[in-house]
Design brief:
The protein is an alpha/beta fold. The chain is 21% helix and 38% strand. It has a single domain, classed as Vaccinia Virus protein VP39 (Rossmann fold, 3-Layer(aba) Sandwich), CATH 3.40.50.150. It is built from six helices and eleven strands. It has a seven-stranded mixed β-sheet. Strands 1-2-3-4 form a four-stranded antiparallel β-sheet, with no helix packed on it. The chain starts with a strand and ends in a 5-residue tail after the last strand.
């Protein structure tokens, strides 16, 4: 058993106070990693089922044998790790706005292992700004397209970490993302809230196919079942 509580790192960032903590939960019998920004918990390794499913579902219907993927939002690395578990993944770019989070993975303060996978490149940047820029999501190849773009940054399409992110969830922003996908490519989004009909309609307007899947998981703290949403959308296939 490790110490009951450890603050592994604390930084003052442009977004506020960022902390990485490791906590022993006797009820689940394991260490739990937590990322906290100011007074808000961004992520806990106690609840990662939906983040893992986000990565898995994004690639589930792709049949190519050499997949190029982007993940927006590194966090604890659960989604990136799930993507890398797919043997068909050829390359993965993970974009995160906080260099401190990238450093935690590089220093192995978090046990994801994504920083040491040769297929994975961790990029410090604003995912939404990169998507709007001519340089796109790969600074080394501005015109590059991807088989899947997977996003876990905001709490939901309506509960944002920053008001400037709102445009991404509107048809124009979604269509811009679709232009970065290959024909038949997949966009996947995590949400902490139930399916949003307005956002699903925006997806339907912007992609050839769109749906929302509810992912349920046990919540040992509240002794109940909790749920997140994974939105999935797909561009039209090649003629």
């Amino acid at each position: 058993m490790s110490a009951r509580f450890q603050e592994l790192d604390w930084r003052l960032t442009p977004l506020g106070e960022l902390a990485l903590r490791r906590r022993w939960y006797p009820g689940v019998g394991k260490d739990v990693y937590e990322i906290k920004l100011n007074d808000e918990f961004l992520m806990s390794s106690l609840f990662t089922v939906a983040e893992v499913e986000l990565g898995r579902l994004a690639l589930a219907e792709l049949t190519d044998s050499a997949l190029d993927v982007v993940v927006g939002g590194l966090g604890l690395g659960c989604t990136a790790q799930a993507v890398l578990e797919n043997p068909d993944v050829r390359s993965l770019i993970v974009v995160d706005a906080l260099s401190e989070v990238i450093e935690w993975h590089q220093r192995e303060l978090l046990p994801s292992g994504v920083a040491s996978d040769p297929r994975c490149r961790l990029v410090h940047g604003d995912f939404f700004a990169m998507l709007r820029s001519p340089g796109g999501l790969d600074p080394a190849d501005p015109g590059r397209r991807f088989h899947a773009i997977v996003v876990d940054i905001d709490h939901s399409p309506s509960h944002l970490l920053h008001p400037g992110n709102a445009e991404f969830y509107e048809p124009a922003g979604l269509q811009r993302l679709g232009q970065r996908l290959v024909p038949g490519g997949v966009f996947a989004l995590w949400s902490n809230e139930p399916p949003d009909e307005e956002f699903t309609a925006a997806l339907t307007q912007s992609f050839a196919e769109a749906k929302a899947e509810v992912v349920t998981f046990d919540n040992p703290l509240q002794e109940c079942e909790s749920a997140n949403t994974v939105y999935l959308a797909r561009t039209a296939p090649a003629p």
